[in-house]
Specification:
The chain is an all-alpha fold and 207 residues long. It has helices spanning 61-100, 104-137, 143-170, 174-191, 196-202.
Length: 207
């Protein structure tokens, strides 16, 4: 009796081919490869970032504070520019009146004062524009904005310290409050981009 004869009724039944996987069920792949559904390839995993799998989306609190301080400083600088322009106009009017009455020396002094006031007003307006630009660029800026902010804050701190020393030497409390607030603002603006959270914010990937 031969089991290999296909016409023999007592022989071993032939081997059936394996059934095809059902529609929608995962297919078995090679070892180490995760199964995939029929017609639906597996999506690749998103790469993680240092410090977590999610990219930092919100600005750190210290940078937000520095940004607000920049806008407040720009408002003060704009008011100073307007005030000095107004002073230049007054000095020019005084100079014209002095010339009409023959006080040439007073007229020359008024012209010089008007010129000085105009220069100071232009400097204040330029600094206000820089403060606003840096504050706006905090959202999308990179290392250039970070370094400029640090230098700008440090220079502002030096100016504030000079004013604070002058105020302390005068002995008037009103001469101390303004420079002291200015120094505090300058310190926050200077250290906010330098601390680890600020550095990570300006180094974050941008798409």
């Amino acid at each position: 009796m031969s089991y290999g004869d296909p016409n023999n009724p007592y022989g071993q039944p032939p081997q059936q081919p394996p059934a095809a996987p059902g529609y929608g069920y995962p297919q078995q792949g090679p070892p180490g490869v995760p199964p995939q559904g029929y017609g639906y390839p597996q999506q690749p995993a998103y790469p993680g970032y240092p410090g977590g799998n999610m990219m930092q989306q919100s600005m750190p609190g210290l940078l937000v504070t520095a940004r607000v301080f920049l806008f407040l400083i720009s408002a003060v600088q704009i008011l100073a520019a307007i005030g000095y322009l107004y002073g230049a106009a007054i000095a020019n009017d005084v100079s014209d009146s002095a010339d009409e009455f023959g006080f040439n020396d007073a007229g020359d002094f008024g012209d010089a004062a008007a010129g000085v006031f105009v220069v100071i007003a232009l400097i204040a307006a330029g600094l206000a524009a820089l403060s606003i630009t840096l504050g706006v660029k905090f959202g999308r800026g990179g290392q250039g904005v970070r370094i400029t902010t640090v230098v700008y804050g440090a220079l502002g701190g030096v100016v504030g310290l000079i004013g604070l020393f002058i105020g302390l030497d005068s002995g008037f409390a009103t001469a101390i409050i303004g420079p002291l607030i200015w120094v505090v603002f300058a310190v926050i603006i200077t250290i906010a981009p330098v601390v680890p959270s600020g550095t990570a914010w300006f180094n974050r990937p941008r798409y």
